[in-house]
């Protein structure tokens, strides 16, 4: 039998003794651990190890306390939590304390029973953290706890006792009774300590009552059928597909939501849409999921502020990692599925779920699905760089590579904060993707990060970086390449790599590059002419890639070189110039200059 501790303090002396009792001290310490865990979960991203560490501390503290004391019940006020008549947690001047969060949403008693497991503890803590971090109280704690359905954590609200969840809306009879009340089949409704009169009937509600009841029956029936059974029903009877009937019903429900003028009607109607959303996710009917998300988005602005807030809360509850796990599993099991439909689901979730969307990159097995998610993030993530970029700290290389690609597609200077980290990743595939992304961001910080690739331990990456740097037209890059050329002994370098270095410098260094490369092309030390010949030929080819017209004049002079190979290479370069194959800019005629001047 579960043990519960009770202490009766009859006077001030006994209460003072209670304040000093070991049990009260332990409960206070547990509340302190609870508050610290909530704040840590809110402050740090999911990829940071600290939130998991504090989730474990919270569970360990709760488990020890339950083992020693038994069930723990807290009375809740707007400023404090009390245990057995003694205040154990509270902040008088703050509305962000745990007590106020619960009291604000109607909870006046919270009980932890023995048997709470680690998973249940984590889900409870995450629910509280969602509410704690939500701006302007957009997330309702009672609804979050209802969604989690925690068997050993019970709470009492001002109008009902809730054991782990709200009244089960899956009970069809109860659901039908509630909606018959506001559709015209009842005169009043009682619930706990509250009673309210049936709102005035509107013609729409009265006329549609039977149809709506039929729709609710369809919801109840279809929710119990598998997709195979639904197909069999459709093939054996000349009726509309079950999903068509559900869509018809949802249209009615959202129409009712637009007209509802009583809080209980709004609450119950939104609960119906949430139930249908959950059932649709479980049965992988993503077209229905998308429809409900779209209707929430469209309905919220058209309802009064209180109803709009509840709809927004429903949307936030829908953006749950469990639903995204189900979506990821569906994509893994169905590689040939309609990705455009899934993309529509992601769009329905919107910016509030970009973190969960990015996390899908870590579990999707098929390239086509990952590319779809990356494409979606690239288009929608411009205002969420920090959320997406935080995944460069992920331990899985393929997640970091995909995130680097997304950041490059977004092209924001803010992304450089995260790309500078992925540029140092241990996996060369991540560094390569980061280099490609850096090319999309024309900024000094991007160019400086690209220059670091010149010292990469992967030769192929070094050469790709040189080619990428040659496209920057950056003075920072030109100066760095010049220092590199002057600081190395050409004859000791890989000829191909040296040629690419000269080409990059020629494209970025302007007249200074023309002068240095011409000097290299003419250089012919007496005792190492043969070793210098490849270097001179590389310099000539680099001059042919220069956008400066002075390079053409220097090449023309080099055609008269006494070294046959040099003269021939210079002549070929001039010929290419003459046919426009080398020029990076069109040749200006007098007419062109006149038009430009005009």
Oligomeric grouping of the chains: single chain
Unreliably modeled segments: 1-11, 159-216, 236-241, 583-598
Total number of helical segments? 31
Mean pLDDT: 78
Strand content of the residues, in percent? 5-15%
- Cα(first) to Cα(last) distance is 98 Å
Report the strand count: 8
Dominant shape: elongated
Strand order of the largest sheet: 3-2-1-4-5-6
Global structural class: mainly alpha
Q: Percent of residues in helical segments?
A: 55-70%
Structural overview:
By secondary structure, the chain is mainly alpha-helical. The chain is built from 31 helices and 8 strands. Helix 2 (22-43) packs antiparallel against helix 3 (49-69). It is elongated.
Key attributes of the depicted protein:
598 residues; mainly alpha; six-stranded antiparallel beta sheet; two-stranded antiparallel ribbon; elongated; disordered N terminus
Topology:
Layout (H helix, E strand, L loop, with lengths): L11 H8 L2 H22 L5 H21 L2 E5 L3 E4 L2 E5 L7 H7 L2 E6 L5 H16 L7 H8 L4 E5 L3 E2 L9 H14 L2 E4 L2 E4 L5 H5 L1 H14 L4 H10 L5 H18 L3 H20 L3 H14 L5 H14 L2 H13 L5 H11 L4 H6 L7 H14 L4 H5 L7 H14 L5 H7 L5 H12 L4 H9 L6 H11 L5 H12 L8 H14 L1 H13 L6 H16 L4 H10 L5 H15 L11 H8 L1
Antiparallel strand pairs: 1-2, 1-4, 2-3, 4-5, 5-6, 7-8
